Fold this sequence. Notes:
single chain; globular; binds L-MYO-inositol-1-phosphate; 2 domains; alpha+beta; seven-stranded mixed sheet; D-Maltodextrin-Binding Protein, domain 2; Fructose-1,6-Bisphosphatase, Chain A, domain 1
Amino acid sequence: MVKKMQQAKDDPWQEAYDFAVEVARKAGEVIRKAGECEIKVCTKSSTVDLVTKTDERVEKIIIGCLKEKFGPDTYSFIGEESVAQGKPCILTDKPTWIIDPVDGTTNFVHGFPFVAVSIAFAVEKKLEFGVVYSCLEDKMYKARKGKGAFCNDERLQVSDVQDIHKSIIISEHGTDRSPEKVTKIFSTMQRILCIPVHGLRGSGTAATNMCLVACGAVEAFFEIGIHCWDIAAGAVIVREAGGMLLDVDGGPFDLMSRRMVSANNKIIAERIIKEIETFSVERDDAVVCKK
Ligand code: LIP
């Protein structure tokens, strides 16, 4: 007991990391079972921004487990569905869980086989660890700052490709269907495709896309319009697999900016950035920034 207490004192986040893996797996089981039944679909910001009772239920289960384990007020929470229901999306110095209970909701509704539970933990606004459970593939991706990235306990390493002409690039079109944004999104994809690159892909979930960068299956993933809960866990996993993250304008990665490039190396990242036609999106923490 004393050894365990000492270990907890020396490395306070290991217990939270291990427990996050357990909770992600439990949440994945709930999603798989829910996918076998009829799914009631609602919408949020647009007719194609889908949400289901499973999204809300799984987020409640995850937050409930974490509060029961560590105490109701020990940590802060940013959850996709809590924010959708009006909770603030503000990252403070307080240790904070950043949760997307069902990343790839549209895939979940359609039975398209990429649906992930994404759980990240930040301390003093710095990402400490991330867990992404691709529950239909049964792939548990995880990473702690400074301790490597893993998939089902196998070490992950990004691709060593430096020639953009030998790359696969991932991007998504998101849920905003305004003509000016769709035009920019597809103009960017056309420019990248015609570099040329080997291919363009998209799994439909940012968290899974980032894990595909981390495991070396693709060289980069970028998107404008994602949210902090989509990418927080994947950001740790990409970095710990030897990759890197930048803003889409080449500046430093900003978790709350809703725009990001994740890549295997700076050469690929900067080459992609040259082709991205940016457009503005409101920050996740815009309420705070407006003050
Ligand atoms: C999804 C993101 C994806 C984006 C989709 C959607 P959700 O998250 O992972 O990158 O293109 O529009 O936002 O809503 O399924 O949790």
